[in-house]
């Protein structure tokens, strides 16, 4: 409660100053014009998009492809003449893991190849395996007895509760005026817990049982576990089952297959049919470098006083492993790279230093951005401020796919409303005008927001982001390149405005 | 023109009699109630759907799985107590072809398994092949010289013009009242050819060049051709490149892969990268039986005079090869089987004989139904009538997926309007009420219509039929089982009404 009152007081003070602040915002419309022109006429979006997806491939944390992508982006920054290009470690991440072969097919009752891929960081199968598939029925630990000693070398699956239904709603959409208006509403939580204590206990029990099942299957020496995932029509959402921990614990080889293919085997088994599969997973573990990294590069500030200050823009370079991480998040990387390219090409001499950061390991827990913040900005546990804490004016992030920018989330900071209202004016006709006080989460700007440094994610048109992210189909074709051109222009302008503004952007309070 | 005047005259005569015909239509509403009740309470749709898709698998013409499915459906008819169950040949079809293994993955610049499947009736690769992929640029025969002698053992692809874009419209839908109203409109053709003579020539030239390219590639001894197809997000439309001809011509092993995967390789090659793939196709040719077959079964007629007459209901049992032919056309088979099961279970003693026909080889050119017509009904070239020509009152077909029935196409036969208006009355509340004079094509009822025997296809809700038919994702989950229950009930009622009607259904004129 104490915190809330403090917050309200500051908002009130901010309100007193907001009107004058509004009238003071200058935007260099000549520069905005140049940014738009460079972004539209000389767009590098297509080339960047191709390189980051098709050529680099999936960029799972620790993988060979992520290493290649770090080097490729750093080389590109150097080629563009950016300064202080660095592949910068933030500390330890864990083991790298590459898939060298993945194959699964049903052999009986008839041959049918299956769409599937190993869950990340699982062990390989040690060559091609052929086995009957066993559908386990485990309601409690007591059920282990039924299977003890019978599963060695077998392929197993557990029933799924997932199902699929036809898409009577469009799978891709743009935000309507009504959506945008709703997006501005800030709802205040409360009204009871989402789950009852009994439900919560049930969920805990299920998780505990899942873990015991996993341990049991590992001990029994099963050859492979097959899982279904959400997604349909051949699109498969891929996650991880294994661990990148340097403890090198053995894991069960596990593959996630298309829900329809999983359903077919499950139904056959439930109807008493014998199903066999051929499967092979070959993986390579990378144990030569456990560190995690971010890629950094700059356009140095030129104002004598302000040049130690920073404007950051960034996106995460890592992805999941079965697609090429196109919408999540090559799109964000491309937009941010293009934004800084535009500024560099225009020869801007910013007052503050502009720094781009391509984060590692976002998908595994925002490690790259949090590691950077821990190293350079502040400790969010101890509240210890570090060198950059009072130097960073803002961090801008793109990580909601390749849809165009429709506005920005202010993370509750009312002081920013008049500033961003003004800054977005030149982009209303490009569809970007919604300034919302709302929070948004699940990506790298929260690492900054968590230590009181303004960190922003944009409102973006969803297009079909939800249909493809984290899937085997998050590929080049998913990226809306026209939209990304718009986004790069807007980001370049926001970054430029932030770099040139007399003061750093106003902050929310952050202390013990 | 002569024909048209004749046709108008007959329509006029039909009109004179249509009002009395309307008032004469009797529907046995007690039986309709029984049909509805049996269909809803004791539905076998789920079991039939599972067996025909998951258990039988893809049912490509001539394949082992189609043979299994013929036997399984015949056995099921026998189990149900139907009469004259027959696996009836209509003549020669061609070679059977089973896929025993299908694998394709990109190896360089990094490993990535690809979603793909052999085109039907292509040859195998003779084991696992590994090769660089060559993107050919062939604008004319002159370009062959560039490649002559260089392609042996290579994997090749030709550029695609296909592309994919986000689905801003729903991929599944039901017909609205407006759609149904539009469906009733009959437009009269004319207004110029679709293509100009120059365009037609260009298309002919392209087809001729395609054939020459194919011959050239075969001669050069390429190891594999990779093609892209329409479809996206992992859904691949599969066709055939090889031949079931008993001439046993050698074909190029060819795989159709997901458009995004094709696009990735194409872009890499266009950007000068080396791409290699691992691929393997193993096929088995079946040369022990070249005949094509339909599965037939009956509920014999009981009226002394009318029992030699026939009411037919049917659907095609064959499918394409990469899914399990669920919406196309296990759904139709299941609906028709369920319809006759309902009638048999109710112990109906129809005046006319009710015969179900599960056609073979529809996907290869309506061979099963045309073969049946040729054998038993009439020769559509010579206009020679055979035994069943004047005995068949109607043929009912379902082959537009698993969406519920919304009405029926009359194939231009106005005389039928009052009859079907009456017969559909008990189904208005189930959403079926649209009687359209329109034609519809592309499936087995046209074999009957072509010889002047009334053949009907129903108007069905499309759901997501267009997204999945002929694809690797035409699987059990695509089938809307509630809708199929409705369809089976309506078909059973239509068949019953036709069997009991005093006269056969009125026909359009058919003669030389």
From TrEMBL, chains A, B:
Its main location: endoplasmic reticulum. SUPFAM superfamilies: Zn-dependent exopeptidases. Keywords: Carboxypeptidase, Endoplasmic reticulum, Glycoprotein, Golgi apparatus, Hydrolase, Lysosome, Metal-binding, Metalloprotease, Protease, Secreted, Signal, Zinc, Zymogen. It holds the Pfam family Peptidase_M28. Residues 294-494 form the Peptidase M28 domain. It comes from the Bacteria. It is found in: Endoplasmic reticulum; Golgi apparatus; Lysosome; Secreted. PANTHER family: CARBOXYPEPTIDASE Q (PTHR12053:SF3), PROTEASE FAMILY M28 PLASMA GLUTAMATE CARBOXYPEPTIDASE-RELATED (PTHR12053). This is Carboxypeptidase Q. It comes from Belliella calami.
